[in-house]
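Need Short-chain fatty acyl-CoA regulator family protein's 3D structure for a figure. Predict it.
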Amino acid sequence: MAENKIFAGPKVRRIRNTLGLTQTAMAQALSISPSYLNLIERNQRPLTVQLLLRLASVYKVDLEDLQGEASGIARQLREVFADPLLAGELPGDQELVEVADAAPNVAGGILKLYRAYREQALRLSDLAELLSREGRATSLAGARLPVDEVREKLEQRPNYFDGIDVAAERFHEALAPADDLMGALRAWLKREHGVVVRLLPIHAMPTLRRRFDRHSMRLFLSERLSMHDQLREVAMEAVQIVLQDEITAELDQLGLSGGEARRIARFELARYAAHALMMPYESFCSAAQRVRFDIDALRSRFSVSYEQAANRLTMLQRPGRPAIPFFLLEIDNAGHRLRRAGAQGFPQARFGGGCPKLNIHAAFAQPGQVIVDRVEMPDGAAFLLVSRTLEGPQSAFGERVRRTALLIGCDAAMAAETVYGEAVGQCAPIPVGTACRLCERQGCLARAEPPVTRPLGLDEMVAGLSLFDFQ
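Structure prediction for Short-chain fatty acyl-CoA regulator family protein:
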């Protein structure tokens, strides 16, 4: 039977150096020649099963240490080099394995430096936010991807684009769709541009939502999409033709720095325009006020999804015809922030959105249920929050369902104008904060990080309710 062979020369050399042995002394104890041990340490000869057993017997070496991947250091190095700052530095993982194997102390130093870098970046971000809340603008910024630049631009400004909204309303009137917008759009695309809309099964478009074939003039949609999402994809295709000038004009106003950022922003503006076409401003705003901003009633009235109706509520800020200034936050079940928007810009300074006690996190435990809360910030500001889970595109057999959670909120002073205000009634508000690192609430059971503004006050004689007691 062939012997199992393991190359672990650097580890053997490290054991010998730790014990202060020469190659001759170790070779004698292992009953091999010094020259053979030298080849082993240079990874030019393998460790056989017999030699592994001798090492374990003579030097009490744990065989897992010799066979493992440097105790997980290589895996941690992969996480470091997955950072956008370093992602292009290595063609593969082999160099990381070699570093972890041959120089684990050096690898450990790299990990410590990277952790310190990330910690400092977080602290700078937190301090920059604190300064901005006090009205002091800062130029501190880390390396950002184009999508980060687009998100920042869109989150800081009102989620209303007048040129796009007005043009979308005119286009809707011209279509005269009655109760069948999808049929009207299909007919318009075929009549005016020769484009035919076709649905394709999952196996034909396994990774795409929509694809336009310019040669055959066909717009393909995936069967993964719900009827509401299919309508949005067709509407996006139409508005990029009809509203091209309005979208470009709003895009120029954003002042983005590169072509990739402009491409991402153009997609977001086309998505905005599609919502404006599906739910024209005047009729949607009037209906929203009549049903007291009941999202489920609106989704039924306009044949759209819960997510689409909630998005549209954050866009109702037309000059002379504004509605409640709602804001919106969407996350996945790992807590990653996917989207933030607001009728007056997302209220980052006042609301934050990073508190673990927000009902958007509790929504995952009650899929499909609407959860309503009134929350209060440390400075006394109060908000009405409505959260619910959303289901992603239809998954194939064996695929895990993509589920996210959506939070839509407004100032608590306007809660009485909504149907959700009745749900909170006279209940005491839930105390929350902007984010753990910026919150100074004492004894918070949900605290996940210490505040950056206060020194930790750990006392071996006293233990508080929070994991991070502070002075």
